[in-house]
Specification:
Number of domains: 1
Structural class: alpha+beta
Strand order of the largest sheet: 1-2-3
Helix content: 25-40%
CATH class: Alpha Beta
CATH architecture: Roll
Distance between the termini: 9 Å
CATH superfamily: CBS-domain
Length: 134
Amino acid sequence: MSHSVQDVMTSPMVAVEQEDTVAYALTIMRRRNIHSVVVNPPKPGEPYGIITSTDVRDKVAAHEHDPRALKCKDIMSSPVVMARPDWTMKQCSIRMAELKVHHLPVADDFGKLIGMISATDIFNAVEERGWEEV
């Protein structure tokens, strides 16, 4: 499959602030039918974070925390590894498997976030287009 991350990523990417409540992030995720949001750094040059549905399950629901009382910075994973838009589906799949993650933000050559790639995006690309070039 010669398709690149840029061909199948979701763009624009959805982001929240570290001081936003987890409830706010959940509302965005539910309304947009997505399973992750990027958490912007407090200052330029600092690392991004990410909140996924797995974080909500493991860090909020499993401990019966009130998402209205938690800030995004309280449950986010950080720093986040970024995917490259020119990676192949194979490169991205291998990297996600190594990291044991299902979502990677995609950054351009200047470090600007331009999208999000998920395991579901890869699944859909493989299902629609096949793995091998025909």
